[in-house]
Design goal:
Shape: globular
CATH superfamily: Response regulator
Oligomer: single chain
Largest sheet: 5 strands, parallel
Order of helices and strands: EHEHEHEHEHH
Number of domains: 1
Number of strands: 5
CATH architecture: 3-Layer(aba) Sandwich
Distance between the termini: 89 Å
CATH class: Alpha Beta
C-alpha cells in the first residue's frame, strides 16, 4: 500500500476523514479603566487587572478620565478611581463613571478619611498592597458595597473629624 501523505485514505467502516476542529470563537474581553495619578498605585492596579484577563487602560488626569469614560463602550467592566485626584476631581469622575456605565464595578481609593467617608460602594484605603487591591476587587464584584453611607450622612460633622486627624 502506498503510504504517501498526498493520498486521502477512505475507510468505509469509519467514514470520511474528520475536518480539522474550528478555532474557538473569540470571547469578549472585559475592559478596565484605572484613574490614578500615582505611578506605583497605577502599576499595582493595572498589573492585577491584566492578570485577571482585563484589557486595562490607565489615565492620569481628570480630563483624560472624562475622555476615556465617554469613549468606552458597554464592555467597560471595572473602574478604579483615585478620589484624591488633583483638585479632588476623583469624586466627580466616580460619579460620571456611575452615570455613564451603571453596570460597571467601581472601586474608589484614597488616603484621606474624609474621602473614604464620602465614597459610595467599595472603598480602598491608601496605602494598600496588591493583595488588598485584589480583596477590594473581589468584594466589589461578588459582595457589593463594603462601605455604606449612614441615613443621616448629610448631617455628619466632617470638619470636626478632619480637625482631629
Amino acid at each position: 500500500m502506498d503510504t504517501s501523505t498526498d493520498d486521502l485514505i477512505f475507510d468505509e467502516t469509519i467514514g470520511e476523514p474528520e475536518s480539522p476542529p474550528l478555532p474557538p470563537a473569540p470571547r469578549a474581553v472585559a475592559r478596565a479603566l484605572v484613574v490614578e495619578d500615582d505611578p506605583d498605585t497605577a502599576r499595582i492596579c493595572s498589573h492585577r487587572l491584566a492578570e485577571l484577563g482585563m484589557d486595562t487602560k490607565v489615565v492620569w488626569t481628570e480630563a483624560d478620565a472624562d475622555g476615556a469614560l465617554a469613549a468606552s463602550g458597554a464592555d467597560l467592566a471595572f473602574v478604579f478611581v483615585d478620589l484624591a485626584l488633583a483638585g479632588g476631581a476623583g469624586h466627580r469622575v466616580a460619579e460620571e463613571a456611575r452615570r455613564l456605565h451603571p453596570a460597571s464595578t467601581i472601586v474608589e481609593a484614597s488616603g484621606s478619611i474624609a474621602d473614604v467617608l464620602c465614597a459610595d460602594g467599595v472603598v480602598l484605603c491608601k496605602p494598600f498592597t496588591a493583595e488588598q487591591f485584589e480583596s477590594a476587587f473581589d468584594a466589589a464584584l461578588f459582595e457589593g458595597p463594603i462601605v455604606e453611607r449612614p441615613a443621616d450622612f448629610a448631617a455628619f460633622p466632617f470638619e470636626e473629624l478632619q480637625a482631629t486627624v
